[in-house]
Amino acid sequence: MSDLINNASVELRQLIMDALGKLVAGGEVPSEPVPSFVIEIPADKSHGDFAANVAMICAKPFRMPPRKIAELICEKLDLAETIFERAEVAGPGFLNFFLGRSWFSGVVDNVLAEGADYGKTETGAGKRILVEFVSANPTGPMHIGNARGGAIGDCLASVLNWAGYHAEREFYINDAGNQIEKFGKSLSLRYMQLCSEKGQQLIYDNRTDTEALCAEIYAQSGEGQDFEMPEDVYLGTDIIEHAANYYHDHIFELQEVSEEERRKALVDYALPLNIEGLERDLKKYRIVYDNWFRESEIHKKNKTAWVVDELSKAGKTYEQDGAIWFKATEYGLDKDFVLKRSNGLYTYIVPDIAYHYDKLVTRAFDKAVNVLGADHHGYVPRLKAALTALGVDASKLDVVLMQMVRLVRQGEVVKLSKRSGKAITLVTLLDEIPIDAARFYFNLREANSQFEFDLDLAVEQSSQNPVYYVQYAHARICSLLRNLAEEGVPLPQTAQLELLDTPNEIELIRHIAALPKEIDLSAKTYDPAKITKYAIELATLFHRFYDSCSVKNAPTKELMNARLLLCEATRQTLRNVFTILNIDCPEKM
């Protein structure tokens, strides 16, 4: 696996250092340490394929004008038998370098040789990274925020694997704590409503239609109505459905038992169904986790008590008003926070501390990356402070904070209400738009950016739809190669690739060469949106090349063959990007 852009940069740095060495040896510049200088790819390609600021950086230690230094370096550069064609001095002393045609030919050859592995790097050196994402409470269906978090987290794990890390995907199941208590209370109230006289009448009226039964109960759940519910419960229709299904199977079995026993029985019935549903829905979204970690296991092993005991032994806690507080201010936070309440219950952050200790110490991952909603911005410093107090290197925990997404239909924002049960769930979204569109769209913007998801555009078959536009580039290449094969023109094994020298051909090849670099940068910044942007630009450059450089009717057979191999290299690069994003590679559209 090779990164030709990085290789060129490394070679160029050595060429510059060799030239400087010659200048020092000849006494033309003083023997001073060369400060660190930058080699970059200019935005304006007329300024070359690479640019270096070495002359500007050396002006002070050499006590010479930067342009003079640049001219001296140019004189000593030996570009013979290198991938570079020429160097120029620009402006006050910038050095611009131009690649030779052999390098561009090498890019195409490299893609065709590496095939499905093209773009992979060894940057991660096999380091183990645990990517936790979605981790929705199993008390109801996943909402639109989970849809974005799922796409970001899954593609991030894929990018990390392509960058040479060993990334695992994990779902943290919050199957304990306050939300489960609330879940049990909600189920119990709905079950008892069904056992009531009015509930029995509705069951009789809708005995063959559970969906209609649930809808009627939900419709009569407002204040002062027959099936009124308190504020501190879940109001979604999924709760009514669970209660109704349990009732149909067990009738009045739980009517006379204690509230605690009733809640436990209903939770034991409904929670596994919800977890099974989460896994099923995520698989539909093409997300398969390596691990499903249950919060209840932390409680069973008394890890919550262990966390508080260890922090107390380290002198990092104090007691006040019967509660145990963590000395968070010692770690730069504005205020301390409670670990254990005066009633003996642990706060929600304690099992999270134990969970992350398990990630980084017990299971010894080199990094833990969490994709969380932006509302967790205050939670992260508290978690890191507690981990530090336990002797854990908190820099091993990185968090991607994700802004919520707004759905738009016909120019209007779609109103959502998770509490009322009227939210658009992941499943309803995927029933409305293609999975490819969902996964691609949710990775169009950086996680921390506000994002509007246009439901109408996501299903539109036009160049305005980004995922359609990119997939069409792949299908267009497939169609070209298929039609030529039917005419007796097969894909050549070799070609004179140095014939590819028009600006559109060169720009396309240059962008193809950038894939390994983009994968590394995406992994470094935890930003899979860089890959979707790369894909859109690749499709744009291919369409531009295809519309301006005839393949089938090229002036010579040799040029046609070279352009066919460029098309094949583009197709392979698109396929590899689609593999990272886990979207389809259509051959016909």
Can you offer a commentary on this structure?
Strand 11, helix 14 (379-389) and strand 12 (397-402) form a beta-alpha-beta unit. The chain has helices at 4-25, 54-62, 66-76, 101-114, 144-162, 178-195, 197-205, 210-219, 237-250, 259-284, 295-300, 303-313, 349-362, 379-389, 426-432, 435-441, 455-458, 466-486, 503-513, 515-525, 529-548, 557-581, and strands at residues 39-40, 50-52, 84-90, 94-99, 128-132, 166-173, 291-294, 317-320, 323-326, 337-340, 367-373, 397-402, 405-409, 412-413, 451-454. The mean pLDDT is 94. The chain has 22 helices and 15 strands. The strands form 4 sheets. It has a 5-stranded parallel beta sheet, with helices on both faces. Strands 1-2-4-3 form a 4-stranded antiparallel beta sheet. A 3-stranded antiparallel beta sheet has the order 8-9-10. Helix 20 (515-525) packs antiparallel against helix 21. It is an alpha/beta fold and 589 residues long. Helix content is 51%, strand content 12%. The radius of gyration is 30 Å and the shape is flat.
